[in-house]
Amino acid sequence: MGERGRISRDTDGSIESPSQSGNLNYWEQPFSQPYFDNATRRDVTATVGQMTYLHCRVRNLGDRSVSWIRKRDLHILTVGILTYTNDQRFQSLHSDGSDEWTLRITSPQIKDSGTYECQVSTEPKISQGFQLNVVISKAKIIGNTEMYIRSGSDINLTCVVLETPDPPSFIYWYRDRDVINYSGRGGISVVTEKQTRTSRLLISKAQPPDTGNYTCAPSASDSASVTVHVLNGEHPAAMQHGNSSNSAVTRLLPIFLLFVCHSIQVLLVTDVYVPARVVKFTR
Hints:
By secondary structure, this protein is mostly beta strands. The chain contains 1 helix and 21 strands. It is elongated.
């Protein structure tokens, strides 16, 4: 009989199939054991309040079950598609015929950060860890929180979105409580770059009516605000309050200049007067 069709007999006379050769039970052979697909992302960053997912992919699962376990307290969250916790924010998602078992976390909070294990009920059990980092995403407007602009100058504000795993789907600009109306006044432009998570607001030739509280409000992030004062005159007194350190320097500058002028005057008088007395004394 050819090699392909050959079967072997055990010492007791029983017939051994090719799949049983080597004294291995069929279900114990390596190709039949469940294993994890390591191509899935295992380090996930999520924003507070935004739904997030942990994807576990198990090959050759057979009749075993998949569980999700929170590592810090060994709490079983789900078994199969059933939820085993009173916290209904955790749910297992699975489609028939799929190798993927997904843990969905609705409205994650900072306290949910940590390691989660996808566990398969083999003997011994096998598991794969996933690290979840929940962060607070927030916007930041570069510069001081209060600005003073001379009438006729440009208002130029740059907003950066920090601690966000994904680019914001939008970034809105407000003045006081209203979305900035681009059509109501000319000279207003906004340039938003989602990949760099930045947005720039430019208002050319600002006038006193442009004074107000400007807010950068990205999707799924805390907003940031800055107060802008547009003032008439070249050196308005109120501009001294825009920066506490600059204000202190401005107040002390006249005193410093007076001191310097007085010192110079004393030096000049001494240079002229003292030699004259010395000459008169020697005669």
